[in-house]
Amino acid sequence: MTKTPSNLILIGMPGAGKSTIGPLLAQKTAHDFLDTDLIIQASQKRTLQDIVDSDGQAALQRIEEEVLLDLAFQNHVIATGGSAIYSEPAMTYLQSKGVVIFLEADLATLESRIHNFSTRGLAKQAGQTFAQLFAERQSLYRKYADITVNCAELSPTAVCAWIIAELEG
Asked: Which residue of 11, 108, 145, 157 has the smallest Cβ count within 10 Å?
């Protein structure tokens, strides 16, 4: 790893484990943790689904981009929303602030973990299936990732150990 990781930025599909692995990774690396979805909800005083329902997916993506570009943290594990990768300015900014880690999982694993696809507050096109969203996003996750870890078969603890070994590598 050629970057000195001040921040560890987690990207990946809903269900990949960003909100589960993030706090554990923060604890194991003596970082603080923040979840950008929670920042969005707190700043907007409503859920992600309410934003999508009221204002549409483009509004959620705009708000998400603003939140990401305003992040000014050091020594944090940052769990981003699954749609963060749609904003090139935000992802370029995040890459400059730390190591971007793609938590990868196959479609079947993600589908087994996500049971509220239609009410989860995802930035997706009307009528878009989870499989279509998965296919659309994969190349973007890979484009921005410094590290990719396949976490489908690993426990959260094993994912953290793998990431830490890769960072020290």
From this structure: 108
